[in-house]
Amino acid sequence: MDNMPNTEYFNFKQAMRYLGIQSYTGLKDLINAGLPISIVGKSKKIKKTDIDKFMKVHTVVTTTGKNKHEENL
Q1: pTM of the complete model
Q2: In total, how many domains does the chain have?
Q3: Tens digit of pLDDT for each residue in 34-54?
Q4: Most buried among 28, 44, 50, 63, using CB within 10 Å?
Q5: DSSP label at 47?
Q6: Is 24 within a domain?
Q7: Is residue 3, in this structure, part of any structural domain at all?
């Protein structure tokens, strides 16, 4: 990641850049799906290692070319 801060905690904009997503809606979807955030006062931060763990847990391995979510559509 170019120009990513060398920090353990990201603000939402930094987390979006790290994840490669463009909208706050996409980030909110991940938070609603269980991505942990830390709130101190009015400051909201996302821990880099929590992002990595969340993405690892939500990785879908396909064997038929479709993931289970796609099969139910």
Answers
A1: 0.75
A2: 1
A3: 999 999 999 999 999 999 999
A4: 50
A5: E
A6: yes
A7: no
Distance in angstroms (rounded) separating the CA atoms of residues 51 and 34? 10
Give the three-state DSSP class for 1.
coil
Pairing of strands 38-40, 43-47: antiparallel
Apex CA 11: angle with CA 10 and CA 13, to 5°? 110
Domain membership of residue 36 (yes or no) is: yes
Average pLDDT on 13-25 reads: 96
Q: Give how far the C-alpha of residue 34 lies from the chain's centroid of Cα atoms, to the nearest Å.
A: 9
Q: Which of 33, 35, 42 is nearest to 15 (CA)?
A: 35
User: Residue 45 sits in which domain range?
Assistant: 9-64
Question: Rounded to an integer, what distance in angstroms lies between the CA atom of residue 12 and that of residue 15?
Answer: 5
CB 18 within 8 A of CB 27: no
Is 1 domain-assigned?
Answer: no
Which H/E stretch holds residue 51? helix 48-57
Pull the structure tokens for residue 9: 């905690």
